[in-house]
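Figure-free illustration: sequence to structure, shown twice.
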Amino acid sequence: MQAAPAWQADDPLAATPSPSRPARQPGELPAAVAAALWRGDQLGSPVSAVSPSGFAALDAQLPGGGWPGHAVTEILSAQSGTLEWRLLGPLLRQVCAAGRSVVAVGPPRQPHLPGLRFEGITERHLVWVQADTASERLWSAEQLVKANACGALIAWLPQARPEQVRRLQVLASSCEGPVFLCRPATAAHESSAAPLRLLARVGVDWELLVDVFKRKGPPLETTLRLPSVPGGLQAILTPRLQKPSTLLPRDPAPQTAPSPFSREAGHALVSAPAAGARRHRLAH
């Protein structure tokens, strides 16, 4: 037998047994890796702070339970200029209550201050950027996102191209407040780098009908119905007017409108079972 080398005999770590690692089952991931892993059939966990939308049904379907920060959210609508304020009103009220500003870039209609006051949005915290051209609106939005200068940004960019939305998404990663891009409903057929996309329209009974057709998670197959009576009307509506659908003639054979985003091109394909067979639907 040979004597152990002197350097090994003098090393106190040489005789110390290495700590044993906890045994894991086959296929089990380390805790840190499992926490960061997102599976496509589950809602993703937020990578940054989120802000409650003010609608419990909507929060239940948004990753993290609210509007995401450090990201772009697209709101698509055929009634641009009015519906967005009703959908975002509860969030904007929280932003104003915290003393931060709400910046609106290029709204198609002049903001109606008396109506916004009912939603808790005051002119003291509202900044209206009147930009007439598409390039001015895009430039203004980019500068505001870069500067992280507002509590919430709403920009109307009906003519934004996919590469411009991608650039805004990259810039928004360093912006704490939520960034909303308002675009027409026809943009649902286009791919977008925005991680969250919604299609919204007005219902008959003072409600908003919202389809979440892109999110970090499986596609939402149902339409959300969010109660949203415009500010100031709740106190004067009679019981019958609170349900206008009861006053309309019933259609014996209602027609089902086709999905407005059935042809949308995207980055990931998600499969979901339907009617006894599996059908594919684009998630982006």
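We now fold a second protein in the same way, so the two outputs can be compared directly.
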Amino acid sequence: MNPSDTSPVRILLADDHALVRRGVRLILDGEPDLRVVAEAGDGAEAIAMAREHPADLAVLDVAMPRMTGLQAARELSAHHPSLRILMLSMYDNEQYFFQSLKAGACGYVLKSVADRDLVAACRAAMRGEPFLYPGAVTALVRDYLDRARHGGEPPDRVLTAREEEVLKLVAEGHSSKDIADILVISVKTVQRHRANLLQKLGLRDRLQLTRYAIRAGLIEP
């Protein structure tokens, strides 16, 4: 993302602690390509703000009163499918992390290192890439190994070998033209495979395909 030729990313920030919001806002507004356009004190307010203030990215605290960030993420994902979502949490907790992914979030940032990770996470989200802190990567790998160890069929079995190849390349960030060149097939065929992947897996975009590829063990987290 080049600040010189792109409008700033519009960010909706939700946290029930005003002091935390202030600190996070200082971090984000200090970057030329990021701008907080709305603040909320809980999940319900975040949903209302999303209707009033068009945003590209929502940064939501996991645990908030009245409606949690996880509940808000599910609602926002359903009603604003183009909105990217990052969860902000003080908890290095696998359960919260997996619930965040299920709720539609594309990243999980620990508050303790927000000054280091949050800006990078925002930019990754807007590129359609997942952002995982080191403990989350470990959790994903452990989850996959546990599934395999207990005889669960790896999720990639539902795909053909060619679909796996296309999925892996899509998740690695290659364009349709790149994939066509690598696999020596037409761009139209690549697009057909990609559409089939989305339909088969019940997913909607590259970010979700990447998440699936990580869980299926096709690419490294």
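Summary for the second example: The chain has ten helices and six strands.
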